[in-house]
Amino acid sequence: MRLPKFSSAVAQATAAVCLFASAAAPALAAPIKNVVLVHGAFVDGSGWRPVYDILTKDGYHVSLVQEPLTSFNDDVTAAKRVIDGLDGPCVLVGHSYGGAIITEAGNDDHVKSLVYIAAHALDVGETEVGNGKRYPNSTKAVVRTADNFLYLKPADYPSDFAADLPRAEAEFEAHAQMPTAASVFTAQIPDPAWKNKPSWYMVAKADKIINPDLERMYAARAHAHTVEIDGASHSVYESHPREVAAMIEQAAQQSGQ
Length: 257
Hints:
six-stranded parallel beta sheet, Rossmann fold, globular, disordered N terminus
């Protein structure tokens, strides 16, 4: 049986429809591969090592910000310096006080999503000190130096900051603290990035440094994708690196779509 021949007009129309459909279909962006990790007060970036190892093994390019903890502006500048050096979009991750830093630095165009790990996500007019009064924490370990820097009493650090880490590791961190300028805890943010960019939030349910209810408030207000970790201390980024890395990877994959 001989098949009917299509006319040239029909063939041209069919080709035009296919071309239009191809042009109309949105291109799927590749998942984001850059991740920037920002530590909090009293510690340095080395605590991110377990998360770093998982992410790099999974093919991500991971950069760590080492803030001087001398002022809020100095710390934001340190974060922006790292972000500016990237060759593409990134996921910006902050722990504890690092959440305030990413809330400010996250306005950079490189940043496509924010991940808060037991972290402050301040709104206009808020400070960490003010929110801490609304949602009191359960530590009494904070010490102020003569030159207005803060640190945690080493004897209390393991129980208050790192209760779910091995004791020897927590004690080492207690004696390797980075004193933090008291002024950073009264810094205000005029344009919080979480209002304009998708956010993820991890609540540490046994946190003694930031009240878990304050963490829940931050997460709900930002409409963040939220996970709560049972028994997790403030050091959740060290004690639960797989869960933290999984949240970061989810942000990278979904923000790239």
